[in-house]
Amino acid sequence: MSFTLAIVGRPNVGKSTLFNRLVGKRLALVDDQPGVTRDLREGEARLGDLRFTVIDTAGLEEATDESLQGRMRRLTERAVEMADACLFLVDGRVGILPADEVFADILRRKNAHVILAANKAEGKAADAGVIEAYSLGLGEPIRMSGEHGEGMGELLDFLTPIAAEFDARAAETAPETEVDVEEGDEDAPKLPTADKPLQVAVIGRPNAGKSTLINQLIGEDRLLTGPEAGITRDSISLRFDWGGVPTRIFDTAGMRKRAKVQEKVEKLSVADGLRAVKFAEVVVVLLDAAIPFEQQDLRIADLAEREGRAVVIAVNKWDAEPEKQAKLKALKEAFERLLPQLRGAPMVTISAKTGKGMDRLQAAVMRAYDVWNRRVKTAHLNGWLAEMVSAHPPPAPGGRRIKLRYMTQAKTRPPGFVVMCSHPDKLPESYSRYLINGLREDFDMPGTPIRLTMRGQGDKNPYKNRKKSTPSRLRKHLGKGRADE
After folding, report:
1. Tens digit of pLDDT for each residue in 243-254?
2. What SS3 string covers the chain?
3. How confident is the model at residue 380 (pLDDT cuts 50, 70, 90)?
4. If pLDDT is split at 50, 70 and 90, which confidence band does 151 have?
5. Which of 14, 122, 176, 397, by CA, is between 20 and 30 Å from 67?
6. How far is CA 192 from the centre of its chain?
């Protein structure tokens, strides 16, 4: 999926109908009464040659209090901040209402790419409403009908340059991962440069202090930390010199404090965190010292590991912690128990507000980056593998022992290893974990994701699977020869 498109507008303008058409399924409920959609719904859209993520949102309400309508509005605004582009639907038959003008102003401030469309515009009855839509100041409206599929070609014309822009931006900022390793390569990782800076994403639950931390690192209040933050999607990353290391730190729509966090907003923070992880080399998972390792924190840390990024755990608001030693011991125990896949990853305590611990954080990030780039020579690996097999031989399913013949490193960023063996499909997952834990310990690779692939060498018997000559066939052949005589 190259970009994300949020469909927004007043209640009952046809957002869910259009969403269903773009994804090609009836995923969203559709009814004539307004307010049917309350949550956000994502789908994989197809339009021409484009593939993108589309979000169906609740109808924009004018309420801003704690009522259901007020909470729905905040959820929709959060989706607008997350999305790469917004499709603003108005009702072509009803025309422009005062609420449309209010929401048009909100969209201009919160998203750089806003496409205006007059929906339900089939027939002459919508002519006046389509002309009136020009008054919103969002450019020429697309005349479309989500129910009948009209206007899809015009929408494709608007989305194509946006998709190209985000593809180019992704190619420019995406880190180099899964790098092939050759035996002649240097063992030392390449250091970040001004052209290819170290790419760091700070992710975590809302109100963990991400914006405060980034402001502290870059030395200025570039990110607003209140609920009124209006940073657009153009502010994708910030460049700065971090202790002499050229660094790009990633800002997403989720990097701002929230006075009150709801479950749906928390889910969005994970989706937004995943977007940030894809552009990072090192991921700093920021925890709140008062409420660490909640379910949301675990999901965020796990997605960083699954994406194969180096991970650093940073515990924020440490200045407010009264019992530091006891808390630190409890944190380490919880880390090992709840995130065994990141065992050994650096965990540092910091205070984004006071700036304490920033040096420790940078040292941990650079250490994680170094391990992420680690390369091990094949000769060292094979000597190590022989010792590991001798200490704990692999099982023998059906009485036939699995032989581990040799091992090599195939990739870095993260480290990836291949073991050539017999019957790789019968080797249990527990033995792979045994080898991975050994690699972490013996080659000093704590915390970083390690990819281990078991690969069979094939059977070298040239006669395998070849049809054997049976005695009866042989006798028949000999008998034929004697008859010829």
Report:
1. 999 999 986 544
2. CCCEEEEEECCCCCHHHHHHHHHCCCCCCCCCCCCCCCCCEEEEEEECCEEEEEEECCCCCCCCCCCHHHHHHHHHHHHHHHCCEEEEEEECCCCCCHHHHHHHHHHHHHCCCEEEEEECCCCHHHHHHHHHHHHHCCCCCEECECCCCECHHHHHHHHHHHHHHHHHHHHHHCCCCCEECCCCCCCCCCCCCCCCCEEEEEECCCCCCHHHHHHHHHCCCCCCCCCCCCCCCCCCEEEEEECCEEEEEECCCCCCCCCCCCHHHHHHHHHHHHHHHHCCCEEEEEEECCCCCCHHHHHHHHHHHHCCCEEEEEEECHHHCCCHHHHHHHHHHHHHHHCHHHCCCCEEECECCCCECHHHHHHHHHHHHHHHCCCCCHHHHHHHHHHHHHHCCCCCHHHCCCCEEEEEEEEECCCEEEEEECCHHHCCHHHHHHHHHHHHHHCCCCCCCCEEEEEECCCCCCCCCCCCCCHHHHHHHHHHHHHHC
3. very high
4. very high
5. 14
6. 23
Q: Which of 34-38, 100-104, 109-113, 128-132 has the lowest mean pLDDT?
A: 34-38
- Of 404, 440, 439, the C-alpha closest to 419 is 404
CA nearest neighbour of 203 among 98, 155, 105, 275: 275
Output the pTM of the full model: 0.67
Which band of pLDDT confidence, cut at 50, 70 and 90, is reported for residue 118?
very high
State percent of the chain over pLDDT 70: 77
- pLDDT over threshold 60, residue 148: yes
Contact 258, 207 (CB under 8 A): yes
Lowest average pLDDT, out of 3-17, 158-172, 356-370, 411-425, goes to: 158-172
Measured between alpha carbons, how far is residue 353 from residues 110, 221, 297, 374, 460 in Å?
A: 27, 12, 21, 34, 64
**Residue 446 tokens, joined:** 């704590």
- Token readout for 298 is 């675990």
